Structures are given as C-alpha cells and as structure tokens.
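This section describes the prediction task in plain terms. A model, or a person checking by hand, is given the sequence of a single protein chain and must write out its three-dimensional structure as a string of tokens. No templates, partner chains or ligands are provided. The sample shown here is typical of the held-out split.
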Amino acid sequence: MKHSRPRASKHSAANAAAIIRNRLLDHHVGKIELTATQIKAGEVVLDRLMPKLSAIEHTDANPRDTLDPAELVRQLKALFAERPELLAQVIDAAKVEEAPPQLPVPAPAISHGATSAVN
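The expected answer:
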C-alpha cells in the first residue's frame, strides 16, 4: 500500500502566508529582528503562496463593452436629452484633450556681467 503525504490545503497555505507576512511586517516596523536570509526566505515562500496582482486576470465584463453601437448612441441621446449640460462638458473636455501641449516659457536670462547705471 502506497502512502501519500496529505497536500496542503488552500486554508493552511493562507494561514502560512499570513504568518510570514505578519513576521515580515513586524520586522519592518521594528518589533522583531530578522536576518537577511530570513527575510529573503519569507519573500520566496510568500511569492509561492500568494498570487501576484499581475498574475490575476480581471474577468468582469463591462456591459457597455458588448453594446451595439446603435444602442450606445440611443443611450447617449437619452442621457444628453435628460441632462444637456453633460454634452457641453464632454465637448469641453474633448477640446482640452485635443489642444496642443503648451511649451514652457523660458525664464528671463540673468546677466552676471557688469551692469550699467541708468540716470
């Protein structure tokens, strides 16, 4: 009969991650001292136990992404009919975005030479 080790559950991995994270935070705020090796080991284990934010895919679809363009136009017309001031705000915002970038105005040059007296 083959004996297998029980696999760590997600719950125990989350507990281990919390313990390591708390120890690293305690070190950060000066409550405890950790060696460089302990800090690096904690970082390595945390990387394996907790997903990085860059690795998490955001899958919530925005309902507006699937709208037919004609339906989107209909909704915008209804919105602007109900609140006409919004149309003016959108147009003004588009004008600001389309405006060419302003070049910085150079500061006046300061002369370090001799100055002449004005009478």
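For orientation: The chain has a mean pLDDT of 78.
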